[in-house]
């Protein structure tokens, strides 16, 4: 089969690799219908996150089960499924409490020798614990929206839940990437009344408004903080979604959060900023979030997509066939595309 | 009147100062019945926190109102009152939401030219917003317990609430100072089932057990983390109270918190440690807490003290008259005393 591999910075290839196949009794093999490229894939693309030459890449996909091992109980060939961005056994203490990202048997697509999502098919460990079945009657037109549930929508939702977005809340969202935009959508879904989106890109601003942003702040840094404070009676936003993960974005989030408020953080800390407790303490600022337990959120988000109440698909603004996946990376890297769908 | 002043590291004096008097219409003057020395006063005593020579010190006291300004509506001379460790106007947006520590008109006893708690009397700004009246029928024997509500008990409670201590919870408390011990007591009061207290001092361990600690860990650092993990099936404690505020105590708290858990932080970050987001992200660790809004918690904690359901007074293990307050500082600095009461 063909799959995307990464051989070094800016060196994305599509290569012939061994066919995905059942290896363990709990495995399933999923034929990918749609995959996509994540902002976090760009860290590998830029050489910031190291990868072994030839390693697979991609961690978001929807597809159809084509084979299952003898222990798989809940799925059968032909089922359409969504894969969250980590696999998990579904039975350990962490999985049971709803934190599959801490599953001791879990792992990331493309890590080590595992299959990545940007390929023709994927071997899925712990298929019963990992995959979420899509009802057969779901319209094919929903596929992009379902694909977004594999990571960005669940991650934006995690930020919103963690920040305390709730009916009537005032929320600020730092970052207008696909995750930040999904954070806006999630905050609206949770009933937030005022949603302040921070970001400079006009095209992304349009998606933010479509998703429910009531205010947009195009300033950066200290000016953005001042602007949000102006918009909130000088107090700041009680719920802030940190959807970037850099030192600057954290400084902005801390600057504009209201005293006693909470920052829901989901921006992958590739540059691993350190939080100044001295700036949090006197103001009673809390933080919550982290790597989104997407598997836990999938059933409720899926139900809303199927019912027509939730559509994160506008975060995708380009589609490339698998053979042109490298163009997709380039487009996201130079920001000419927001998020790119890959069709095997 | 006489009051405690600080002139430099290890230089605590009792001096004649101008009598406390009403200056603003909302002021009250409180004759101090009992005051005490706080672990955070030691930072000034050790020269880590700078003070102007001759500045007042002390921020915990109970006493009787002896004079009120014309705007004071809820108090009159003769009323016994508890003062939280900051004053606050009681009317601003932060006070109304229950965060008086962020009150724009608020301040700390002993800051600038204000009176400190370790003296014969204190001018209290915004007396209606700041002070909490103790019912006349309260027994004098309760005074030490009431004094503890001015800071340590409310601070321990803030750590416990912020960490998510609740009925049935497993809680770990980092720090066996007076705040950590009150954190144990607060966790028990909130219904925690298992309370693991970390600390090396045998005498403090006795108070921890009295306050409800079910397990005690005398190891430090990595060994303490391993021990707590042993006690919790390898998973760690879902609720951790950080009651120290140093880089080491934070590292311990992060090490022993269960993935998806929350650290309630109240240790004053004098050395202002920076939190490594890279170590929090993948494990979904949250933090909440900060400077305790003691004024907000006072009514419920006071009710429990008066009803005999709550007694934090065992954190006090020595009493000195005001003239010997310097001995009290020395005793707390060399750890021969846990927390010292001062009687004017």
Automatic annotation (TrEMBL), chains A, B:
A Pfam family matched in the record: ADH_N
Coiled-coil features, chain-numbered ranges: none
Cofactor: Zn(2+)
SUPFAM superfamilies: GroES-like, NAD(P)-binding Rossmann-fold domains
Keywords (A to Z) from UniProt: Metal-binding, Oxidoreductase, Zinc
Domain Enoyl reductase (ER): 8-342
GO MF term set: oxidoreductase activity; zinc ion binding
Annotated family: Belongs to the zinc-containing alcohol dehydrogenase family.
Record protein name field: Enoyl reductase (ER) domain-containing protein
Native source organism of the sequence: Saccharothrix variisporea
